[in-house]
Amino acid sequence: MISLEHWALIRQLHLAEGFPKAQIARQLGISRTTVLKALASESPPTFQTPDRQSAFDGFEPRVRSLLAEFPTMPATVIAERVGWAGSPSWFRKRVALLRPEYAPKDPADRLDYSPGDQVQCDLWFPPVRIPTGTGQWASFPVLVMVASYSRFITARMLPTRRTPDLLAGMWFLLSQQLGAVPRRLVWDNEAGIGRRNHLAEGVAGFCGTLATRVVQLKPFDPESKGIVERANQYLETSFMPGRQFEHPDDFNAQLAAWLVRANERMVRSLQARPTQLIELDRKAMLVLPPVDPQAGFRNRIRVGRDYYTPVLGNDYSVDPAVIDRMVDISADLERVQARLAGRLVADHPRSWGRAGRITDPEHVSNAGRLRTAFQQPRPKTIEDAGILRDLADYDAFFGITLDQEEHTA
């Protein structure tokens, strides 16, 4: 069979340059018949590998029968069922070629997004351990929220993936980076948001304050939040390489600076930049509420003698003057505070470590003064000295009058 190079050269020499067929045959060292066949063929020659018998061919009907009934059966199990004794890797390759014919199909539609309609939310887990400032290193989740219409990315690292921190993170990104509230917040089945159509405690109140709603996707439906999934991959490949972080605040500072440039990127499917479309997105969204939603950690606890209160895995000192009193604890992404009847009795930066003890030196000083005052002896009173009042004083106080003789007796 003539090669593709000879076929192209013969046609070029004869049809374009006018060389005679005999001269072409002599010049290329081929027969005139080959030249005639090349000129008669309008399409390039194709080569097909001749079918050869394979040891797998005899097993293929039984393999197909098993795949038709059990599309996800592992190749190793199929090999055992059909009695395959050859190469395991060769068998796996042949089964992999057949499996798509029997696997159930799950078509994904291309979705259109309206301005202001939704923001897709997800947690991204950077492959890095960050010092917490307490001698510990840990990995933390990053909340990523992307406006579906404009592809505008917002993100922030959080101390935990618990509901209070997720709500505080969403409020921070909506109020500080996006500047508006979409009509829908699209999530997967993240436990801190809810499971099986039941929202976690606090999520409904948060959504009510913002006048929005959380939509949790069904399992095995990644395409419905493919925009935020691609943003996670973009962060992994474009933000992370070559970076080092001294603490979580350093991570968030570097991330915020990078997002300014990232939102200037050209989105091929939109033929526009997110910064060019975000204003149209914001105009169609809801305005921020006049009152901040309930977000972050809240608790009421009695202060013990050691004047420390446990909050999210750490112990924080409180003014010892409120020992044995009930105080209201609040913790957002940055501060941990305690209040007694609205009066601030503790204010600490939030620790990202675990099992730590965060102390205000002023609380220690106050505890020392109170301890000294408690240990000092009290001055003795008349009652302490054993001096008793005359019983007549008590009679007069209660208005009791007795006959003088009875009193004398």
Describe this structure in words.
With 409 residues, this protein is an alpha+beta fold. It has four domains: 4-40; 60-101; 118-284, Ribonuclease H-like superfamily/Ribonuclease H (Nucleotidyltransferase, domain 5, 2-Layer Sandwich); 297-375, no CATH class. It has 14 helices and 16 strands. The chain has a five-stranded mixed beta sheet, sandwiched between helices. Strand 13 and strand 14 form a beta hairpin. The chain is elongated and about 155 Å long. The termini are far apart. Mean pLDDT is 88; it is low at 405-409.
Record keyword descriptors for this entry:
single chain, 409 residues, alpha+beta, Nucleotidyltransferase, domain 5, 4 domains, 5-stranded mixed β-sheet, 14 helices, disordered C terminus
How is the secondary structure organized here?
Blueprint (H helix, E strand, L loop, with lengths): L3 H13 L4 H8 L3 H9 L19 H10 L5 H8 L5 H11 L19 E7 L5 E2 L5 E2 L3 E6 L5 E5 L5 H16 L5 E4 L6 E2 L2 E2 L3 H8 L2 E4 L9 H14 L8 H15 L11 H11 L12 E6 L5 E4 L2 E4 L8 E6 L3 E6 L2 E7 L7 E2 L2 H15 L15 H7 L6 H5 L1
Parallel strand pairs: 1-6, 6-9, 12-16
Antiparallel strand pairs: 1-4, 2-3, 4-5, 7-8, 10-13, 11-12, 13-14, 14-15
Helix pairs in contact: 2-3
